[in-house]
Design brief:
The chain has 87 residues and is mainly α. The protein has helices at 2-6, 16-25, 33-42, 45-54, 59-70, 77-82.
Length: 87
């Protein structure tokens, strides 16, 4: 489900496993910039939650990635609200 959403507008294909690894390690690969922004803006919150549980990505890691690479250009207030208690 997530792969379909994040790769909808792209030529390069980003697999879920690779996205999970990038999120866990706070790595940003410019060739997947569209997919990364799509993940944080187009994927429904419940699917993000399932994804992070499936790949054992902590809320802290997700928030750190979002704040480091995404928030300035594509803020997602709903995601911020979901992660408000992360500290």
């Amino acid at each position: 489900m997530i792969e379909t959403t994040i790769n909808a507008q792209t030529i390069n294909y980003l697999k879920e496993e690779e996205l999970a690894r990038m999120l866990k390690n706070t790595e940003f690969d410019e060739k997947y910039i569209v997919q990364i922004f799509n993940f944080f803006t187009d994927v429904p919150l419940q699917d993000i939650a399932r994804f992070t549980m499936r790949y054992q990505i902590s809320d802290g890691a997700l928030l750190r990635y979002y704040e480091t690479f995404v928030k300035e250009l594509y803020p997602n207030p709903e995601l911020e609200e979901m992660l408000a208690d992360v500290g």
